[in-house]
Design the sequence.
């Protein structure tokens, strides 16, 4: 099983994701330079956090024109797993692999802090090791994580269980206070229709080891590994 | 012929613009009670070579639609003018 | 031409008449215009340390772990396991006073490149900031700009901002201080230096193209700020963190491939200083063709190219066989890489443009030939007044008032939580931040080892103002205690000396005294100075900043799992003080309590007890190794009661409060003791610890062995901070919820006022 972590110019969580997957989750992982066009050797691709192309113009807008993105469409088509974390989520939105767009945080500031998240859907390859409705703690670190989509798109996402993670308070309620950036309906992470592309603003790779203050994030990678082991790998 | 295109981009109507709201608040505090609305956007100036105004406009339209603006959240306007030789910025 | 008045002379460039005469004499001729500009920048205070060099020589710089001391781009210290840490602090005060966002942003850029130039990967940033009062609109503007500048630049680089401090006081209102610290990690064999060895080697520039920005930035930084400073705004450069990120990755890759002989940041004075310094260190010469430097603007002349301070550029010395490799790595990262000259044996920096020689100066004269000044020093007048502080001049509050005093101190912007600041900084990227901002020192793991690196910056300028020698010694001592309360051993420091104009005898006296105090403390605590920076002329219309010699310290935690944290751990644990709490009127000197509650900046603060501090450090590091302590927190602003409150605020679930009686501190029958000084007094060499009762014998023995007084003052208990008198009567009780609320809201409240 091989994971690949894409490195765009300006990615800065690439080595963190690599560490979490290879050293913590314990599976093969490689860095994938943004000019790579062949992803056939990988079972899962991570678009990591950071400031691809300096986040100039719009977060993720320039990265989506990297050569690697062309092959990513085919990769998704084949049903392999793609996870976009923070800036990676923004790239997925810009690339149209997930619906909606990101606006600047409503607080008009960058926010780096721990947040509570509710696992709204644990029947995805990324969350199958969480309990339904489980409240978990992840860090966030972004200036533009204010998720926006037209109301009918939001309704569709809700109806089809594609809102995977939501910002909540300690007891699991999606309150205004628990929403760190103004995201529509407290949305922190969504999945595509096919169920193999997840985008999320919080950073699972930053909470995969207890020494960093929490290890709730590890199960995202372990879920992916488990789901690859049980199915996707066989159909390769 | 050389043209200069200005692509002005701002958040679509109906999308809350916190920066604009903050600036509006400050303007009101300063005494500008007449201010009804503030929207903050960006303006991208592109110098380009084209056969005529029409072609320049068409190219700029494509640039704006594909890259410069995000159709989900942003609206834009394009202005084109011929660039006078020797004029700097 | 932009930026150069037709009538420019050495005076306008910032050179003194006698300096110009010296240049003429040593050169044996009149310098031409370009040469004059090159001298002006390299002989500026900012680059040449004319008023401080002789003082800096008195600082201890040697130590068993010091691999590279002062004089290079950054100091380097051995941390074992064949690893080393490069670290340095630098000021960006003047640029930030004029344009706070870009001033702070480019400050980060510069210090990061200094660490990179040693061959290390930059892994942490800390910021030491000083502003005027938060209710002053100008100070608020500067504060907002600086914080967002640090966030905007640092976050993009993927280097976590793990700590630092912020202090607000009137004297910083017109002259904010922005000191930025960077630390990096490398293997011993990856060490690089800014040296231009090897005649025939190629001089290359990598990174941004060169524009007309920032010409004479360092002469600007070597002058007092006045009404004209606003109009000097073009001197401030614009940072491009994306370019910096690419530059970091590209340079690390070039060095890893062994392609780089020498490397140097192009900071202040750009190409001129980087060329002169690399050649001077190696005893070689350089010949440069400015026409080959990638330029951003048309029609730039040699003067402009040599003096530009365009950001995100590095100078490389590369052997001819490796030029191709360096170029291809640059191309991979989308960077400009240009060959601009060669290393020669001429001992001169020769500059050509279109085949014409524009400058030819001996590098030793340029880089090391500036005069040194030892100005007159005179003890400041104000000290006579401030030293007078008797018990009668400070009203002693009754116990019922103490609750409000504690809450007021916890909410004071100098003590209150800095979360509204640090939540704007990415402090977690790289997934090594084990103890982040919000505590005395940050603890960062070193992947692949059991070790942790500990970083802190410290200096209380108010104490230095009232007692320059003692205050500077306190900066070192407090940093060392901040490191030690994590259980780590202090290893070395970098310093940034922020003062007013050294041409004022009173300011120069402050500087001289402060350096002496720092030297004594570094000697006693075995923390050599490995480098740093001096920022003088931080004054406006004769109003200088508090003398602020900031200390950035590196500590080493041998086993990160055994680190100590500030929060209480278990209900029932013993609460004790290591060291001495004076509790007398003198200990109110320069305290936050005296200023916030009584509106006074006065007194003659005691110097730290360095022997005692040494002992406390031993007790903490040994105690950590043996797992004795549940928590440790040093006494600083706000004194004993604030330290206790902080241990409660950081406490783990189920251990939220404490009940203490200061009886055990031995202040029972002493006549000079007063309750406010006992609870809120400062300049005590002391740490509050907690530990389980069953190890109290071990702790006592450990303290005896190191000659450290140990006073058990209470227990972790209840959900209040409570104080009982010697007679057992409870005289003060503050619920933790109120304590936490005041601490959490203090800064935001002050900024909104």
Sequence:
């Amino acid at each position: 099983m091989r994971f690949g972590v894409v490195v765009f110019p300006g990615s800065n969580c690439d080595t963190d994701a690599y560490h979490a997957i290879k050293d913590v989750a314990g599976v093969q992982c490689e860095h994938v330079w943004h000019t790579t066009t062949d992803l056939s050797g990988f079972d899962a691709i991570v678009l990591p956090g950071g400031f691809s192309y300096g986040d100039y113009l719009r977060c993720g807008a320039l990265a989506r024109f990297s050569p690697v993105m062309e092959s990513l469409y085919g990769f998704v088509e084949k049903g392999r797993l793609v996870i976009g974390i923070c800036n990676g989520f923004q790239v997925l939105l810009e690339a149209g692999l997930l619906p909606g767009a990101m606006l600047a945080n409503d607080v008009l500031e960058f926010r780096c802090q721990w947040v509570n998240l509710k696992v709204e859907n644990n029947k995805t390859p990324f969350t199958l090791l969480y309990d339904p409705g489980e409240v978990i703690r992840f860090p966030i670190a972004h200036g533009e994580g204010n998720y926006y989509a037209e109301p009918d798109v939001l309704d569709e996402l809700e109806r089809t269980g594609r809102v995977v993670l939501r910002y909540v308070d300690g007891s699991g309620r999606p309150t205004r206070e628990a929403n760190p950036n103004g995201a529509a309906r407290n949305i922190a992470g969504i999945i595509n229709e096919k169920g193999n592309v997840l985008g999320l603003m919080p950073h699972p790779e930053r909470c995969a080891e207890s020494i960093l203050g929490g290890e709730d994030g590890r199960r995202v990678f372990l879920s992916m590994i488990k789901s690859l082991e049980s199915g996707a790998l066989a159909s390769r | 012929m050389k043209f200069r295109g200005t692509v002005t981009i701002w958040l679509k109507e109906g999308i809350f613009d916190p920066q604009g709201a903050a600036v509006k608040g400050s303007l009101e505090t300063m005494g500008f009670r007449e201010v009804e609305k503030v929207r903050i956007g960006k303006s991208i100036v592109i110098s380009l070579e084209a056969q005529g105004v029409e072609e320049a406009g068409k190219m700029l339209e494509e640039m704006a639609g594909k890259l410069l603006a995000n159709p989900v959240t942003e609206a834009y306007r394009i202005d084109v003018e011929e660039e006078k030789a020797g004029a700097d910025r | 031409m932009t930026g150069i008045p037709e009538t420019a002379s050495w005076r306008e460039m910032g050179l003194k008449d006698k300096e110009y005469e010296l240049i003429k004499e040593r050169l044996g001729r009149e310098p031409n215009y370009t040469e004059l500009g090159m001298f002006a920048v390299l002989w500026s205070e900012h680059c040449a340390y004319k008023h401080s060099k002789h003082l800096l020589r008195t600082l201890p710089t040697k130590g068993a772990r010091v691999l590279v001391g002062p004089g290079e781009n950054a100091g380097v210290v051995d941390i074992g396991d064949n690893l080393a840490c490069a670290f340095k602090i630098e000021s960006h005060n003047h640029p930030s006073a004029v344009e706070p966002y870009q001033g702070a942003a480019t400050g980060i850029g510069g210090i990061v490149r200094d660490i990179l130039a040693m061959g290390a990967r930059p892994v942490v940033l800390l910021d030491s900031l000083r502003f005027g009062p938060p209710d002053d609109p100008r100070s608020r503007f500067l504060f907002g700009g600086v914080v967002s500048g640090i966030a905007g630049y640092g976050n993009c680089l993927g280097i976590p901002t793990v700590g630092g401090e912020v202090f607000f006081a009137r004297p910083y209102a017109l002259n904010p201080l922005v000191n930025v610290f960077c630390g990096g990690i490398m293997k011993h064999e990856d060490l690089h230096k800014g040296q231009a060895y090897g005649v025939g080697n190629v001089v290359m520039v990598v990174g941004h193209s060169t524009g007309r920005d920032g010409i004479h930035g360092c002469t600007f930084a070597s002058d007092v700020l006045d009404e004209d400073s606003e109009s000097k705004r073009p001197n401030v450069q614009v940072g491009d963190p994306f370019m910096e990120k690419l530059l970091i990755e590209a340079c690390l890759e070039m060095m890893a491939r062994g392609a780089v002989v020498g490397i140097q940041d192009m900071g202040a004075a750009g190409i001129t200083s980087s060329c002169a310094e690399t050649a001077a260190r190696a005893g070689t010469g350089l010949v440069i063709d400015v026409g080959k430097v990638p330029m951003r603007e048309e029609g730039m002349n040699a003067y402009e190219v040599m003096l530009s301070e365009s950001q995100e550029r590095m100078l490389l010395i590369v052997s001819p066989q490796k030029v191709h490799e360096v170029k291809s790595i640059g191309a991979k990262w989308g960077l400009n890489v240009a060959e601009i000259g060669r290393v020669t044996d001429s001992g001169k920096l020769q500059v050509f443009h279109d085949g014409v020689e524009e400058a030819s100066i001996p590098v030793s004269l340029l880089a090391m030939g500036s005069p040194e000044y030892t100005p007159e020093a005179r003890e400041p007048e104000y000290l006579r007044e401030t030293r007078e502080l008797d018990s009668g001049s400070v009203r002693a509050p009754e116990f019922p008032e103490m609750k409000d005093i504690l809450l007021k101190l916890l909410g004071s912007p100098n003590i209150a939580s800095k979360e509204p600041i640090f939540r704007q900084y990415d402090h977690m990227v790289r997934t090594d931040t084990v103890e982040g901002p919000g505590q005395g020192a940050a603890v960062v793991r070193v992947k692949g080892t059991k070790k942790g690196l500990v970083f802190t910056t410290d200096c209380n300028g108010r104490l230095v103002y009232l007692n320059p020698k003692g205050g500077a010694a306190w900066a070192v001592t407090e940093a060392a205690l901040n490191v030690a309360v994590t259980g780590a051993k202090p290893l070395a420091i970098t310093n940034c000396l922020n003062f007013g104009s050294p041409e004022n005898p009173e300011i120069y006296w402050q500087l001289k005294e402060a350096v002496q105090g720092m030297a004594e403390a570094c000697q006693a605590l075995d923390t050599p100075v490995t480098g740093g920076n001096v920022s003088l002329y931080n004054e406006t219309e004769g109003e200088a900043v508090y003398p602020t010699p900031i200390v950035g310290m590196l500590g080493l935690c041998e086993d990160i799992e055994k680190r100590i944290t500030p929060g209480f751990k278990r209900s029932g644990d013993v609460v004790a003080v290591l060291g001495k709490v004076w509790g007398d009127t003198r200990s109110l000197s320069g305290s936050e309590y005296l200023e916030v509650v009584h509106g006074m900046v006065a007194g003659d603060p005691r110097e730290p007890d360095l022997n005692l501090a040494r002992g406390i450090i031993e007790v903490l590091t040994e105690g950590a190794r043996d797992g004795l302590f549940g928590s440790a927190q040093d006494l600083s602003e706000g004194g004993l009661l604030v330290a206790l409150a902080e241990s409660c605020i950081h406490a783990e679930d189920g251990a939220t409060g404490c009940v203490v009686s200061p009886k055990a501190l031995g202040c029972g029958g002493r006549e000079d003791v007063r309750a406010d000084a006992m609870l809120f007094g400062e300049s005590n060499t002391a740490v509050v610890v907690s530990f389980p009762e069953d190890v109290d014998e071990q702790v006592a023995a450990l303290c005896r062995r190191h000659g450290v007084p140990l006073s058990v003052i209470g227990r972790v208990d209840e959900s209040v901070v409570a104080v009982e008198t010697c007679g057992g009567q409870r005289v003060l009780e503050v619920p933790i919820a109120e304590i936490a609320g005041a601490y959490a809201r203090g800064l935001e409240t002050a900024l909104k006022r």
